[in-house]
Amino acid sequence: MELVQQHSDVSAYLAVGEAVDHDHPLVGEVATRLADVHPDAYSYAEAAFAYVRDTIPHSQDSGDLRVTWRASDVLEQGTGICYAKSVAYAALLRARSIPAALCYQRLAEDDGTNPVIHGLVAVLLPGEREWARQDVRGNKPGVDARFSLGEERLAWTVRPELGEVDYPQLYAEPHPAVLGALKAAPDRLYLWRTLPAEL
């Protein structure tokens, strides 16, 4: 699938935003700590991926009812759903001047019901000509997402016959439907009932 930049200028994917707030001291602190051990862009991007995937539990898996949507809040509170964790990873990448975009899949149950939007991050490392999608949702039995610049290692592969979709658009900030749902939710149980089903 060919990914399509929402903004033609790649600098948009380095910008500070309302959700991707990599100018926040906490984001900078985590980024610096990771970069001290992983100074080159590739190893840093992989280490930041593992940090968000493995040390920030997906709130559905952990049972945490808090809803986070700003990168600094995700890192501070140590929780979030896929959208929030993607924002945190994008912020950590941008904090080290690595272009990062938010992108999405539409997933469904095995019978095609209950469609929901799933959040991913696309990274553009120095020397690379193509964006590479990453999934920091967090692994669990049946889910084994890994950092990869070649063959994608996402949590799920879409099944078009069930109406699932890989959306090609790359966004600088969360899609308005995604951000709106996060901001409006007083807790994760409410959020689960209001997650967007399509973009």
What does this structure look like?
With 199 residues, the chain is an alpha+beta fold. It has one domain: C8orf32 fold (Roll). 34% of the residues lie in helices and 13% in strands. The protein has seven helices and six strands, in the order βαααααβββββαα. The strands form two sheets. It has a four-stranded antiparallel sheet, with helices on one face. The protein is globular and about 45 Å long.
Provide a compact summary of the structure.
This is Transglutaminase. The chain is of the alpha+beta class and 199 residues long.
From the N-terminal CA to the C-terminal CA, the straight-line distance is 18 Å
Rg for CA atoms: 15 Å
How helix-rich are the residues, as a percent range?
25-40%
Q: Quick one: overall form?
A: globular
Order of helices and strands: EHHHHHEEEEEHH
CATH class: Alpha Beta
Number of helices: 7
Q: Tell me the major beta sheet.
A: 4 strands, antiparallel
CATH topology: C8orf32 fold
Record field, number of beta strands: 6
What is the second-level CATH architecture? Roll
Instruction: Give the strand line-up of the largest sheet.
Output: 4-3-2-5
Any low-confidence stretches, pLDDT <50, length ≥5? none
How many domains would you count in the coordinates?
1
Organism: Streptomyces gardneri
Protein name: Transglutaminase
Domain Transglutaminase-like: 31-134
InterPro entries: Papain-like_cys_pep_sf, Transglutaminase-like
Tags for this entry?
single chain; alpha+beta; C8orf32 fold; two-stranded parallel ribbon; Papain-like_cys_pep_sf; Transglutaminase; Transglutaminase-like
